[in-house]
Amino acid sequence: FEHNFYERQYRKSLDIRNAKYKANRHSDKVKTMEEFYETKRYSPTEEILQWGNVYTPEEDLPDKETYNKMVEDYIIWLNDWSNDNGGHLHILNCTNHFEEATPHTQLRYIWDWTDENGVTWCEQDKAMELAGLELPEPEKPKGQHNNRDMTFTSMCRTKWQDIVESYGFEVERKALDSAYHLSKPQFIRQQIAKQKAQQEAKEKALKEREEHVN
User: Fold this and answer.
1) Residue-wise pLDDT tens digits, 116-162
2) Which residues pair with 97 in a beta bridge?
3) pTM of the shown model
4) Cβ contacts of 148 within 8 Å, gap of 6 or more
């Protein structure tokens, strides 16, 4: 499906790119549609949606029906946002996974914009700019740590958190210092497990010393 979408949407712009490369004697830069699709700069973006982690008790996780509704709400919001801001974002694929400990979603989408000649270009930053997304720090130069994708990601994360909370699940909105970003109950359980392991290690060492003395 994604290959067919690329062929319909970006064939004309790719032919224009390739013609320019050939005219400037840069045939090494000419790409097939397959190569264009696989190029990191032009390949679809994959976003992961999830609530909970390996430390979350199974009984606290959303059931399949609830999780599907949560994702559906998110997809509707994302489509509406795109349509309200120029239609520059296209969702290509969305798959929910329930076979692992925590339900999660792989969401794939692509950004583009159309010029005055009706040619559609697969260019994320330009499309984001036309969609009205600002830099996180507009007064500073655009770069790796100051780009529109950061603004978009932050917006999406907040919306997903809002949706999760609307279904009655708690959300830790502020990133924790813990490497695993645990919630308070999860952190407590982890510390109890660590203390138990330390106590068992001490008892084992004591037993070994007693056996050595005997």
Assistant:
1) 999 999 999 999 999 999 999 999 999 999 999 999 999 999 999 99
2) 104
3) 0.78
4) 125, 128, 129, 133, 134, 135, 142
